[in-house]
Amino acid sequence: MDSMTQAALGATLGGAVLSRPLGRKAIIGGAVLGTLPDLDVLIDHGSAIADFTYHRGFSHSLFVLAILATSLAWLLRRLGPESITFSRWWWFCALPLLTHPMLDAFTTYGTQLLWPLQSPPVAWNTIFIIDPLYTLPLLVAVIIGLWRPPARRAIATGLILSSAYLGWTIVAKQIVAARISPIMVEHHWQDDAQSIQPMPLTSLLWRVVVRDGDTRREAYVSLLDAQPPRFDTFDTGTWPEPMWPELERLAWFTGGQLSFNTRMDNTLVATDDRMGVPGHHPFRFGVARQTEDGVTPIPSYTLDSASYNGAFIARVLRRITDPSALCPADDAPEETVRARHCRP
């Protein structure tokens, strides 16, 4: 999730544990702890793909953060007020630190909860990286807590409302999965790789992706739709052979949800299809030079991509109630589109 949300979650949890004796200090300290794991973005790993795939690594490991929480609790017990026990200090440190990666795991990016174990990154895909309906109750609780500490009732209410909304996103995803299941069976796609993830800023509209070889099918599904979804079809390009270590790591991190294309300057581009939507994928990397002799790897670098602007977000929100407002192929590069079925 975004840094503001993580700070707000950490602040409310810190306040829930120690706002009675510490007041505003507990809320501020919780906010600091809640943002601490994301400081790994300051580390330069040497290439764009390395920076991308090592983020949410060791600093988001439940093992590492549990050890850090214990160490900080021991230090605070020695330096802080004698009336606060070690166990309370531990909960004060552990809750903001450990909930940070757990919340991140509900997004699409991928969080390595079990680092250093080489298990695939966890991405439950139930909430967009920024969702005001999750964040707002926490922010209100933080403001009240800073204004009139200890504000335990406000803090508890904020945590309950945000947690309930997070639970709702899980239910909403299951509703979408049940709605598309007959379509998967009808088209014999049930054995293909599938993913369901929320669209920007909402849990009412979802992106459904079905992959089969070099073909990717996408549809937007609103919980308010009256008609079955229609899928636009895209070409994912040809994977380079043989793969080299950096590209293998990218494939591992994304679960193989990549597309490849060659630009006019003969740069081979790898796109993370999980993040964003066609025409608005934020993570695109130059990875090699395409020549007559084959593919020559280069140090990866990040390419500019079309960001989510206000006009696009407005179309997303209109799509919740209007199926004609937005289709997957609308903003996609024409050369990647195989077939348009979203609009009959």
TrEMBL record:
The chain crosses the membrane at residues 58-77, 89-110, 122-147, 154-171. It holds the Pfam family YdjM. One of its GO terms (molecular function) is hydrolase activity. This is Metal-dependent hydrolase. The keyword Disulfide bond does not apply. Keywords: Hydrolase, Membrane, Transmembrane, Transmembrane helix. It comes from Larsenimonas suaedae. The keyword DNA repair does not apply.
